[in-house]
Write a structure and sequence with these properties.
Shape: globular
Order of helices and strands: EHEHEHHEHEEEEEEEH
Largest sheet: 7 strands, mixed
Helix content: 10-25%
Structural class: alpha/beta
Strand content: 25-35%
CATH topology: Rossmann fold
Bound molecules: glutamine
CATH class: Alpha Beta
Distance between the termini: 6 Å
CATH architecture: 3-Layer(aba) Sandwich
Low-confidence stretches: none
Radius of gyration: 15 Å
CATH superfamily: Class I glutamine amidotransferase (GATase) domain
Length: 196
């Protein structure tokens, strides 16, 4: 099927997600009729089979979701959501920061900036449950961790501090940035999972 993938383009690392999804689609054998485009308004979202919520600043993205009247449309979006870093924060049910109004699409509590100042950024080779092949080389940038999960949540990876990758039905969320580098296995897995 021709895929239409939207990347929420309110703030954050949007172009990296567009490039990663284009590469994943190409590797999966999709032709030019599959598209990856920026989502800024409810009408853009209505066109998509899947949505990526990128990393950036979750407080800012949350505010702009409200301003652009995207809160309810994203909450009722029927497609899959691929969320990274600040995106993971937004997918949670509990964030503990009043500046973020989480979408509540994945039952989990997250701790923003969980690695503190000393380890604002780091890289790690992660064993991701269900991912074929080698460990995934993960880049963490002021990353959150998941501190607790509710029903229906599958843990895909953890580090010492806590859970860093989760799946629930059509949705996947990562503390790190799978869109950096050219390993598209997680993007491809997500797309296959939703029938693309
Ligand atoms: N610390 C940021 C936040 O909570 C997320 C950082 C990122 O997306 N790279 O919004």
């Amino acid at each position: 099927m021709d895929a239409k993938i939207g990347v929420l383009a309110l703030q954050g690392n949007v172009s990296e997600h567009i490039d990663a999804f284009l590469l994943a689609l190409e590797r999966m054998g999709h032709g030019p009729s599959s598209e990856v485009f920026e989502v800024r308004r409810p009408a853009d979202l209505a066109e998509c089979h899947a949505l990526a919520i990128p990393g950036g600043e979750s407080t800012t993205i949350s505010r702009l979701i409200g301003k652009n009247q995207l809160y309810e449309p994203i909450r009722s979006f029927p497609g899959g959501i691929f969320a990274t870093c600040a995106g993971m924060v937004l997918m949670a049910t509990e964030v503990g920061d009043p500046r973020v109004r989480p979408l509540g699409l994945m039952e989990m509590a997250v701790d923003r900036n969980a690695f503190g100042r000393q380890r604002e950024s780091f890289e790690a080779d992660l064993a991701v449950d269900g991912l074929n092949g080698d460990a995934f080389h993960a880049v963490f940038i002021r990353a959150p961790v998941v501190t607790s999960i509710g029903t229906g949540m599958r843990v895909l990876a953890r580090v010492e501090k806590g859970i860093v990758a989760v799946e629930k039905g059509k949705h996947m969320a990562f503390s790190f940035h799978p869109e950096l580098g050219n390993d598209t296995r997680l993007h491809e897995w997500f797309l296959k999972n939703i029938g693309i």
